[in-house]
Amino acid sequence: MRKFGSSALMQMALVAAVTAVAGEFKITPFSGEMFRIGLGSSAFLLSLLLMRQLPYIYTGLAAGLTVLVFRTGLDAFASSSDAFSLFASLKTHVPAALYYIVFAAFMKRLQVSLPERQPLHLVCLIALIDFISNEIELLARSILFDYAYLYKGQLIWVGTASAVRSVFVVGLYSSMLIHQMRVVHNEQKKRMEQMLNVGSGLYGEVFYLKKSMDAIERITAKGYQLYSRLNEAGDKDVSRSMLEITQQIHEVKKDSQRILSGLLKLFDRETATDMTVNEIVDFVIQSNASYSRMLKKDIRYERRIEADYATAHYIPLLTVLNNLVSNAVEAIQATGTVTIEVYEEEEDTVLVVSDTGEGIAEPNKEVIFEPGFTTKFNDEGCAATGIGLSHVRDIVRSLGGSLSLHASAPSEGTAFVVALSTRTLK
């Protein structure tokens, strides 16, 4: 005998109980209580659709037996002890139990392919299964009670009920699936946004690390050259110390290489998915809208996208645009507008980030791209730890592009212009 886990048994018991109770909400299209059309069938069908992991045949047996016992118990409760006949009650409700067993047996044939079925196709198949199961129930009743199998209008009633029930339940099932897919999609979208934020931040750190390694390489070469000169000059002690320093610097470089190798695995182009320029701008606006709300600023974002295509360089583009837009947000005091424009000019794609902030003071315009330059200090006088415009410019240059500041009068905002080769981005 097949063994089931406690979870499966509890689920089958729940389905059987719900089916039995829902079956009492019914209509009787033919004379007497012999045949009913109730919500039990709909509840049972919906349960099978939602719990595809259950063994359908055993679930049908459990539902059928529960319905038989439940309805017999209700007959006993509603009748006096003298009027109640256990045999007559069982005889009346056995065909209903047979309906659920037959229905589950037919549904077993569809169980594996349910997720791939189109809703309309599924409605037709389930309506047919329901119609056959109802007809078998009616046939069983006609045999047990020795009356004519076909009632007047029976086929129309049963066929209509089967069709309506199938449409209703499959429609409800499809709606629940769509809602579930939306929830999953929203969750995936949030995770993707988190991954892109992390990727954008890591890209800046990787860029710093590469620059540092280049600097370490140059320092190592100069250190070794100095060691050679000191050694040739006969200053053995100083030259030996210089060699030790050079070796230690080389060890730092090797450690940096290991860190860089680990970080670069996060940017594996074979597993990355391209993003369109439009999607990149969307993400930047959403991210900085949250940032502006955190700063309690009322900032409106405008976008003018005239060039849109997919690019594998979305991480550096996100890094550049995110930093330019976040700088714009910080430059606006309380209320203002940040605008992102993208258009093609000759062989370049031009990205413009402008704001209606305070603008840049004239003396700062000449040094704004210098390493370490910042105008942002907190209440304790500590400088901001952002990526900085010098590094934004370096990232743009690493893609073969240019970053420039458009001249603006004080208090008239700022506009930064990024020009990148369209061929490189594509």
Give structural notes.
- The protein is α+β, with helices and mostly antiparallel strands and 426 residues long.
- The chain has eleven helices and nine strands.
- The protein has helices spanning 6-22, 39-50, 56-78, 86-108, 119-145, 154-232, 236-264, 277-294, 314-331, 389-398, 422-425; strands at residues 26-27, 37-38, 275-276, 298-305, 310-311, 335-345, 348-355, 402-406, 414-421.
- The chain has a five-stranded mixed β-sheet.
- A hairpin with a 2-residue loop joins β6 (335-345) and β7.
- α6 packs antiparallel against α7 and α8 runs parallel beside α9 (314-331).
- The longest helix has 79 residues, at 154-232.
- The relative contact order is 0.06.
